[in-house]
Write a structure and sequence with these properties.
This protein has helices at about 5-15, 60-65, 85-95, 105-115, 130-140, 145-165, 190-195, 215-220, 235-240, 250, 270-280, and strands spanning about 35, 45, 55, 95-100, 120, 170-175, 200, 225, 255. By secondary structure, it is an alpha/beta fold. The strands form three sheets. It has a four-stranded parallel β-sheet.
Length: about 290
């Protein structure tokens, strides 16, 4: 992208307004396109004009596009498919932009790009800052930089508010249960949310897949227990389990459930942060 155009696009994304609202740029006075951004794919994403048919792959991209008011441009495919069946659905959708989660198979994306000649953007998703950056990138790619700035600013405002609220609060040792005692490490979006909520993930950076060993969990003795699942254990069930009933989190009742949709890499991560902060530090919000 030429330097002047890049400067214009970035100014539209980050410039504030006195009332916090601003209509999207239109007409010949402001040129947003062409736009080049770098997601987490190997190469940059380049679009010459506002895409009209956008295929999202993953719940995070879908949430972001809807938050930017682009629901009418979404072309839905069954992204639970993989390989050629998925590529076939994308080809039939005739997209001019594919917005994919970082969990999407790079080979599938390469095949879809080759079959459709659509631009492909892969969202960064490993931290709250990544989510904000991805929202900004998608706003630029779709001609919605001002709305994207507002959505990202909302997340940042929530982070600042929680940081101020919990300033001086102790870091709480926390276990995150994704269901059936499976967990995630601290190196990821959920781990980053827990960290912003003044928590420390006891599972460490890279826990093994599958159920976390309950004897090991008892040794780690987390002070808070966060469930991110529709089929995770209840506090009553944890208190009935001989291996978990003595956990400090279970005995004190510092337990809570976060709806899975909130921790998807999209615009709801601020709500996830607020929910987890309340679970970890109930006294700070009483």
């Amino acid at each position: 992208m030429r330097p002047a155009l890049a400067a214009t696009a970035l100014a539209l994304l980050f410039a504030g307004t006195a009332c916090g609202q601003r209509s999207e740029p239109t007409g010949p006075a402001v040129r947003v396109f062409p736009v080049t951004v770098q997601g987490v794919a190997e190469g940059p994403t380049v679009v010459a004009k506002a895409p009209q048919r956008i295929v999202p792959l993953g719940p995070g991209p879908r949430q972001i596009l809807r938050a930017l008011g682009l629901g009418n441009r979404i072309v839905t495919v069954d992204d639970s498919l993989v390989g050629l069946p998925l590529v076939g659905q994308i080809r039939k959708a005739h997209p001019d932009l594919i917005v994919a989660s970082s969990s999407a198979d790079p080979l599938d994306l390469a095949r879809a790009r080759s079959a459709t000649h659509a631009a492909v953007y892969v969202t960064p998703e490993s931290s709250l800052a990544d989510i904000e950056r991805g929202i900004g990138d998608i706003g630029l790619l779709t001609g919605r930089p001002v709305v994207a700035r507002q959505v990202a600013a909302g997340i940042e405002s929530t982070r600042n508010r929680i940081a101020a609220k919990l300033s001086g609060s102790p870091v709480v040792r926390t276990f995150v249960d994704l269901g059936d005692f499976a967990t995630v490490g601290s190196r990821g979006l959920i781990g980053d949310i827990v960290s912003d909520a003044r928590g420390s993930d006891v599972a460490g950076p890279s826990p093994e897949q599958g159920p976390f060993p309950l004897k090991r969990l008892a040794q780690l003795d987390p002070k808070a227990y966060v469930v991110v699942s529709t089929n995770g254990p209840t506090l009553t069930q944890l208190r009935a389990n001989r291996l978990t009933k003595k956990l400090a989190a279970v005995r004190s009742g510092r337990f809570g459930v976060v709806p899975a949709r909130l921790v998807q890499p999209g615009p709801n991560v601020g709500k996830a942060l607020v929910t987890i902060a309340h679970i970890l530090h109930p006294d700070a919000f009483s």
